[in-house]
Amino acid sequence: MDSSLLKELQQIVGEQYALSDRASLAVYGYDSTPELESRPGVVLLPACRDEVIRIMGLCAAAGVSVTPRGSGTNLSGGSISHDQGVVIQTSRMNKIIEIDEENLTATVEPGVITSTLHRQVEARGLFYPPDPGSLHISTMGGNVAENSGGLRGLKYGVTADYVMGLETILANGDLLRTGGKVVKDVAGYNLNPLLVSSEGTLGIFTGITVKLIPKPQAKITMLAHFPAMSDAALAVSAIIAAKVIPATLEFLDKVTIKCVEDYAHVGLPLDVDAVLLIEVDGHPVVIAEEAAAVADICQKHRCSFFQTAKNNEEALKLATARRTALSALARLRPTTILEDATVPRSCIAAMLQVIQDAAKKYDVTIGTFGHAGDGNLHPTCLTDERNQDEIKRAHQAFEVIFDAAIAMGGTITGEHGVGLAKKKYLPRLVGESGVRVMRGIKKAFDPQGILNPGKVV
Amino acid sequence: MDEVKLINCMRCGMCLPHCPTYRETFLETASPRGRVALIRKVTEGELDQSERLLDYLSLCLDCQACASACPCGVNAGELVAEFSCDRKGGEGLNFMEDLILRKLVPHPDRLETSLAPLRLYQRTGLQRLVRHLGLLKMFPKPLERMEGLLPTLPARPLRQEIQEITPSVGTERGTIGFFLGCVMSLIFSEASRATIQLLTSLGYKVITPKNQVCCGAPNMLGGDLAGLQTAARTNIEIFAGFDLDFIVTDCGGCGAELKKYGHHSEGAAEAFSAKVRDISEVLALHADELALLLQPLPLKVTYHDPCHIAHCQGIRQEPRQLLKLIPELSYHELEAADACCGSAGTYNIAKPEMADRILQRKLDTIAASGAEVLVTSNPGCLLQLKKGLAEQLPEVRILHLTELLLQSLRPPSSLNPS
Ligand SMILES: Cc1cc2nc3c(=O)[nH]c(=O)nc-3n(C[C@H](O)[C@H](O)[C@H](O)COP(=O)(O)OP(=O)(O)OC[C@H]3O[C@@H](n4cnc5c(N)ncnc54)[C@H](O)[C@@H]3O)c2cc1C
Hints:
By secondary structure, chain A is an alpha+beta fold. Chain A has 4 domains: 3-89, Uridine Diphospho-n-acetylenolpyruvylglucosamine Reductase, domain 2; 96-214, Uridine Diphospho-n-acetylenolpyruvylglucosamine Reductase, domain 3 (2-Layer Sandwich); 218-327, Alpha-Beta Plaits, CATH 3.30.70; 333-449, Alpha-Beta Plaits (2-Layer Sandwich), CATH 3.30.70.2740. Helices cover 37% and strands 20% of the residues of chain A. In chain A, strands 15-12-14-13-17-18-16 form a 7-stranded antiparallel sheet, with helices on both faces. In chain A, strands 5-6-10-8-9 form a 5-stranded antiparallel sheet. Chain A has a 4-stranded mixed sheet with strand order 1-2-4-3. In chain A, helix 8 runs antiparallel to helix 10 (284-300) and helix 13 (348-361) runs antiparallel to helix 14 (388-407). In chain A, 53% of the residues are buried. The model of chain A has no long low-confidence stretch (mean pLDDT 95). Chain B folds into 4 domains: 3-91, Alpha-helical ferredoxin (Fumarate Reductase Iron-sulfur Protein, Chain B, domain 2), CATH 1.10.1060; 95-149, no CATH class; 158-283, Rossmann fold (3-Layer(aba) Sandwich); 287-408, 3-Layer(aba) Sandwich (Rossmann fold), CATH 3.40.50. In chain B, helix 20 crosses helix 23. The longest helix of chain B is centred in the C-terminal third of the chain and has 18 residues, at 352-369. Chain A binds chain B through residues 19, 21-24, 26-28, 30-32, 34, 45, 71-73, 89, 91-92, 111, 113, 134, 136-137, 326-327, 330-331, 334-336, 385-386, and chain B through 4, 7-8, 10-14, 16-17, 26-29, 33-34, 37-38, 41, 46-47, 50, 52-53, 56, 71-73. Bound molecules: flavin-adenine dinucleotide. Flavin-adenine dinucleotide sits between chains A (31-32, 67-75, 78-79, 90, 110, 132-134, 138-139, 141-143, 145-146, 148-150, 199-200, 204-205, 326, 415-416, 452) and B (12-14).
């Protein structure tokens, strides 16, 4: 990194918030994505929008690349910078600027942690539904940039469904305001959805306004075991067909069940093929009916066990298996590759078969859990980065899985984003014209190509 | 350094929100994930052990909140400690470390004698004079801090006062070996007295071997593995001389270390560690009986989880369960109750600025809880929080768990209704 540029950047954020020693740079070269790493030139932690504007201005003039970073928990290599590039970590910009109870919106700085926003709005009887598994550490900026989903996605949608307004710093340092607090707004192109899921390649969010809804009054948690995967999948479809939309409809496959049982001893029988965790929320009278319908459907689809939690404590107990799924799998081997291939709900059983076959063919261990309700599966490969041959086989298995997802009308990534990790697969999904349009958009926003270069397309 | 322990970290970042120093700084170098990566890069030769890097690692409190949060079972705190131990192993101890860790700590008599001038200092009124005149400002900073942390010392260490055998009240149900922590004995002897009384009231005979030595945790902290092993051998041998149901301690730090003896050596050490219990674990075994012995204490109480109890030993329910046994007590859960208070052994002396920031967060949550009494069960936390409360929340009392339970215990005359 050029020393005079470094000096100027230091002056903007203050020396203590401009990290350029070897040790610091070494630990800002990764995020949560396995196998990917780089060595940035400097890491900056600005305190406010103004500092971001000035940083962007300087970097644009110098033609130096900039990668925004929240907490570095994404799973597609999105916050891994160019070697010698500038990283902007937004963590210090963590104020909740406003919770507007009249317009039902919250406006936050990008470094606000997702669960902090949850707590604050829920204390006022309001609700911000997106709840990625990483909610206690992921930032709102990261959630918007990745269009993160969560356990409640089936009923409540994903981050994009809640973003109403954005304040974005463009590659040349200009400020762009899109949307706002109004529900209806058809002035010009709808840029919000474009910026949401832009993975740091179109601009840096410095302000985010999201929609809030009233907090559901109550919820009922249920757990069902199925000896046959196909029955579990049919039950999922039948629940939706019965016009019950659960807030949560999660499942674990056989490999995951075994790992969870070995690790946490929660009493899961090892002869079942699938476990479903189902939660309905809303008005107490309505959810009582819904819960009864769910119970009925699960019984009809030959579940071997069904339980409805009587209170909060029991609900937590029932959710333990799903909550510990990742831990249980991750402990088995040193390296965990967590993917998010997603298929239409009706194809879940077929997709699971593809996953099992691929694991067998390439001789790797893959446990699958995930969001059965919205078809977003997490095939999780347990491997060891020191074993190059096994890693290669794992990638071969995933290639089969992604191709199958595309063939079924699904997608290569339901929530983790493309970043670096899935770049190779994107053209297969969106085709040549898709890539061309995306590149055109990138060019329009960032003609120099300095914002998070190399990601997505 | 065990390579597998390092590569088990999948960098998911689940540890970050639980790490007190990350919460304060947002720096990857001050996070568990970052520390594991730094150590890994050093062992793989990608980074040198620069002073900067060692400085980053030294910010770790070893509170092990990260270990509780880690999906993969990585314990970054322990890895940092091991890394320092390995380094120290190469360098050897310096003069002061040798003096304190080898010549002082393992010898209770010497340790106790070394505190005599302090006791004199407090008792003669010299302390008040020194504080009044602001003379402390002339001491080196760490000494000034140490002085500020010290509560009034008991007249004599408990170890010298207690009988080796305290009989049970009523029918004897079993025998307990009491491991008397150094700091508990020297400073918080009232709490350890309470521990013994609670155990005897529940029908245990309590044996407190006089010749037991420091658990060795300070050695580990100072990177002196050999010192720890000597301490472990001595204690294992001493306690093996009695037929015991449990070995109980009321010091979270000692408990965590004693339970790990088995990791450092085999055989007798494993058997020893298997018997070790925190006092709350044993009391909770007899919760129903204990409830009958307790009388009302209409107090608003909250509980701070010591890292050495919650994170290192996984004990969270028992202390709360015991407090809720006390009739008329209203229990208020503390926000982020299991977040470190910044004491962390000698951390508050070595890293005063960070320790103060972490303490401040804790004090804010205590104030918000509305409690009149703060209960905890580790001497480090007691020291740190006592000082913090005295400065900012003088209306809040702080007690060891067993002290509060003892206050609620019916007088012995009414104990045996039969
Ligand atoms: C254990 C675990 C569970 C997870 N569970 C889920 C889940 O259930 N659902 C889900 O969707 N994801 C999940 N994730 C992935 C990840 O947590 C999300 O992608 C999250 O939104 C990333 O947030 P972050 O703050 O860590 O962002 P980072 O990882 O730091 O950044 C993510 C991307 O956003 C960009 N970015 C960050 N801040 C800004 C900004 N202010 N302006 C513009 N661009 C920005 C970065 O350049 C990068 O491309 C999980 C990850 C882990 C490790």
